[in-house]
Structures are given as C-alpha cells and as structure tokens.
Amino acid sequence: MKKKHARYSPSTLENLTLCPCFAYPEGDNEAAEEGTLLHKALETGNDSGLDEGQCGLVQAARDYISNIKAALPPGHEDHAEMEVRLEDLTYGTADRVLIAPPTAHLFDAKFGRKGATDAENNMQIRTYSAALLNIRPDLESITAHIMAPRAHDFTSATFTRDIIPAMCAEITALYEMLDDPFERKPRANGDLCGICARASKCPEVSKAVVSTARGLGLPVPEVFKPEALVSTRDRGIAQLIAGVLENWAEQVRKYNLDFVRAGGEIPGFIKRTRSSGVRVPRENTLTAFDTIRDTGFLSERDILSGMTLSVSELANVAAGVRGTKAAEEKIRLQELLGELGVESTIIYLQKDKKQKIL
142-162 pLDDT, tens per residue? Predict the structure, then answer.
C-alpha cells in the first residue's frame, strides 16, 4: 500500500476493525463532555469544576498510577499526556507515560460506564505501545494499563518490541481494506450499532429489523432508512415496529437483570453497581432542612436556593391541610405563581386504536 498521512487515531481504528463503516455521531454529548473534563483534570491535577463523584474517579486513576510510580527508580521520566506516532500510519495521545529504561508504563483512562477491555487485545493500547517503543529505541518493553475507575476495573499487559512490526502490518491491512470499496462492508456489532451515526442507513441493521418484524408477524415497510420514509403507511409501520422493539428491549433488560440478581450469569456481561446520587426522601425533607439550618451549615435562604418546588406535591400538601381536592389546589398554585412556574411538556406518538395502519 502506498504510504499515506495518518488518517485515523488508534481509538477510531479499533472501531473500524469491528465495523469498517462505523461513524461517530456528530456533535458533543454529555458523556463525551464529562470524559474531556475528567481527562483534563487527570492531566493537570486541577479538579475545579468537578463534583464529588467525578473527583473520586480521577483520584482513583491517580492512585493507581502512583502505586506504579512508587516502584520505579529515581530519575524516571513522567509525562502527563504524551503524543505518540507510529510511522505515518496513526497518531494519538497517551494519558500518562512513565519511562525508566529499558522499560516504561503507559496509562489510558476510560471514564465511561463500561469496564476496561482486555489490555492485551485492545487495539488502541497495543498501538500506543508500539508507537512509544518505535520512538524510543532505548526501551525493550512497555506495560500498558487501561483504567476504568467508574467500573472499578483495571487491566494491564506487557509488550516487547515485536509489537511494532505486528501493529504496522495490522494497521496497513486495515487501511487497504478501508480503501477497497468491494471489501469495505458493514458488520453488525453489539458495541457499535447502538451509537453509530450510520445505523439508520445500515443494511445489517435493516436485516435485523426485517427478521424481527416478520418473526413477530408485523407488516414490513418498503424502505428502512428513517429519512427515506415517504408514504404515511410506511411511517405508521415503522413507528409500530419501533415501539415493539423498544418494549421488547426494555423487558429483556428487566428480566436479565432479575436473572443476574438471583445469581445467574450472562456471558459477556458483568453485574455492576453505581450510585445514582444521594437524595432525601420526601418524608425526611423537613428533618433534613432543620438539620442543615440548625447546624449552621447553610442559612434558610441558601438551603431554599438549592431546592426545586414541585407544584403537584405542594398541591397535595395543600389539599391535605385544607381538606380540598389536589386538582383544585394545583390550579390555585399555578394562578398564584404565574410566570414563576414552568410547565414541562413532551411530544410523542400514541397508537390510535380506532384506526388500522393497513
């Protein structure tokens, strides 16, 4: 293959290995923004802007690195974020690198919900290791670490200089396949299809929809690309299928979770527990309010500034106090608050039982 400039980072190459047609959704999302924020804190040591839980995630990664660092000899190199490049094939930035020739430690943080993948078989971490060994001839080996503190999962693997030609050959073969229109075909993948920007156009996803719809005895639309739906009939059928698949998926998650809670195991999945945040139940609100105020932690005004009023809940309280109906008190509250109260609305499609799609 003719040499080209580095087109993809190792993380993108890893996804393209699983599906050559994968594409990230455009624009930022909350998880990506949080990941950027946490990586920045890990790099700079500045935790400003992070909440308590996020600080804990970054600190867990720092503690893991510190334990490795403590065993290294004096005078070792410590790089907070280090750019690496594997010839002209790919490039990237390692989150942290500790170098003590003839060996080194490379760290990659994953702050998402998923656990750390097996470092030995992770393309991104193998590529980073090959790149660092390639630019540092004084190194004989590298131990690479994947840190996933949110999942309490940390894995590592050690690579020798043999990884350099192996990764060069693997990435070159991948580029050759990506450049061949007859070889670059989509592959269904459980980790990628749910986030791929091209899922609506993917024939593999369409096959799954067709198979599922027919298996359930549902009508099948003439086209499957959401943006290509033209007739109202096809739109109705597609909406019906979407609802069935969502309901099926929700029930699968529920029954599988119940199965695992009862001691069962599902291959490829690990039961994880994470905090969804600390909240004060309604019945404890007054006691909590008095405790915060009476201890001097915050004034009444400051406490109230951190609270949100529920018109429905206040209407229930008012109805209990006055012996009236909650619906009547809700109307009175809304009139009293005027523009201070904001009503949230959602728009959705509901099946009209009086009409048939076909």
Answer: 999 999 998 888 999 999 999
Task: Report the SS3 class of residue 331.
Answer: helix
Say if CB 265 and CB 239 are below 8 A apart: no
Q: Of 161, 198, 181, whose CA–CA distance to 15 is shortest?
A: 198
Least confident piece of the model among 12-21, 241-250, 279-288: 241-250
pTM of structure: 0.64
Environment class of residue 357 by beta-carbon count within 10 Å: exposed (0-12), middle (13-18) or buried (19+)? middle
Strand segments (E) across 120-216: 141-148, 153-160
Exposed/middle/buried for residue 189 (C-beta within 10 Å: 0-12, 13-18, 19+): middle
Q: What's the rounded Cα separation, in Å, for the pair 281 and 268?
A: 36
pLDDT confidence band for 38 (50 / 70 / 90): very high
- List the chain domain ranges: 10-178, 199-261, 282-340
